[in-house]
Design a protein that fits this description.
Elements (H helix, E strand, L loop, with lengths): L7 H20 L1 H5 L6 H10 L4 H4 L6 H14 L9 H4 L1 H10 L6 H19 L8 H12 L11 H17 L11 H6 L10 H5 L12 H8 L1
Helix pairs in contact: 7-10, 9-10
Length: 227
């Protein structure tokens, strides 16, 4: 019996996920530990919102439509697969939503205009909003943004919008969970980053294998320990 060949979209998803994972590994612990600077009260707010996704509570910044659009966009950038969490599992949407309500507040209009232009382009091209497109169509739209082929973008430019959302997707996947993403250390587990451990044994330090021992301790866990 012939073995079923991998679907083209499955290969595309795998390639995109692998690219972002490699990029995160290059970025290293600096990205994983602290994606953006926040005041202590902002960290507490982020931790409190972490239990509920932006799509469920309407968002700290996004309205429901924009939240759902960003959730779909980031999932196409970092698609999940069996045993490999994607943007939805890591709650990247929640990270971006909280950041725009706090440390990234200066980008609020950037996102509003970018999302409006995104839907306008999708309506012109497919007569539907980005959220209602098929996964393949969403991928084509994202490629058009990345390659500056998408029309109708003034500010932000299409490629600029893509680059910003991709950067924030990586931050939401691999930053410390205290900032609202990387739920249950999904991103850290994906790249084998151990987080802060109580102790590393000599064999841990000399091993060339990915570190998998749990639990992994982040800023959120330490903050709870001091409470």
């Amino acid at each position: 019996m012939k073995q079923k060949r991998p679907d083209r979209r499955d290969r595309h998803d795998s390639d995109r996920r692998a690219f972002l994972v490699r990029a995160a590994a290059v970025a290293g612990a600096g990205l994983a530990q602290d994606a953006y600077a926040q005041k202590p009260e902002q960290r507490e707010q982020a931790t409190g919102h972490h239990e509920m996704s932006a799509a469920e509570h309407g968002g700290a910044f996004f309205n429901q439509h924009n939240a759902a659009t960003i959730a779909a966009f980031t999932e196409r950038l970092m698609p999940g697969a069996p045993g490999k969490p994607g943007a939805r599992e890591a709650e990247v949407l929640n990270y971006i939503d909280l950041a725009l309500a706090g440390a990234y507040a200066d980008l609020q209009d950037f996102y509003r205009r970018g999302l409006a232009q995104l839907d306008a382009y999708c309506q012109t091209t497919y007569q539907e909003t980005f959220l209602r497109l098929t996964a393949a169509q969403q991928d084509e739209v994202i490629s058009a943004l990345e390659e500056s082929r998408a029309t109708g973008f003034a500010w932000p430019a299409a490629q600029e919008f893509f680059n910003t959302v991709r950067t924030h997707t990586m931050e939401g996947m691999f930053a410390d969970p205290i900032y609202g993403g990387n739920k249950d250390f999904a991103g850290w587990r994906l790249v084998g980053f151990p987080g802060g451990q109580a102790i590393f044994t000599p064999s841990d330090m000399h091993s060339a294998k990915a570190f998998t021992r749990a639990p992994m301790i982040g800023l959120e866990a330490r903050a709870k320990g001091r409470a």
